[in-house]
Amino acid sequence: MTLFIYPEIGEEVLRIREPLIHAIVVSRPNRFLVIAEINGKEITVHLHDPGRLRELIYPGAEVLLRKTHGDRTDYSITAAEKGGETILLDTRFHNEIGKRFISEPTGSEVKYGDSRFDFSVNGGFVEIKGCTMQIGDYVIFPDAPSVRGTKHLTELSSLKRNGRASGVIFLIFRWRASYFYPNRVTDQKFAAAFFQAYTTGVEMTFPKFQMEQNSIIFQGMLTLGPDPTNIFLDMKKH
Fold first, then answer.
1. Contact assessment for residue 2 and residue 104, using Cβ atoms and an 8 Å cutoff
2. Structural domain range at position 108
3. What would the mean pLDDT of 23-43 be, rounded to a whole number?
């Protein structure tokens, strides 16, 4: 029995309830805080994605905020706008989206050994990863070293070898891309663990999404592309 199911292409998989507010990034003091400008006023906002996001969060970048309630902020960055695309950034939505693609989830945030997986299913586990970094026709992941991601892939490989269901859903938020590939320049260990899991038979899927106003819409699938050697050679030069 497969771990995954799929909506119809064009189907809404998530609707963000709160109104979205246009803002401009001024600076990013740390991984989780951004100074943004709304109508000429600077405010501090929360960023729930700890990735580098250098191509999306930089001075002058356009973002969409929504009202939230934190200890230090009253707004969160929900998405970034780039090249005519609106790209979901708030990782708090990932599991809600990912669950739409799992055939029979039986639990969430499930502890197994010394790890915690996003979902349990069919006696095994499924992990959700959100991907926003695009170069050419490729979305690559991660955009920063991911010790946790490497550990998850290694453990899913072990579970699969022992006859347990195991899978990863890579949520792709750059819907115009065609291919996925692990970012071996930024994280060689993750890339090695990815291919170990892939050849072991860990189920992997790469659904892509378009954000239109407050709707997240399923737009089909990426495939694992051939090694994008030129992309990685260019990355090493910078």
1. no
2. 92-237
3. 96
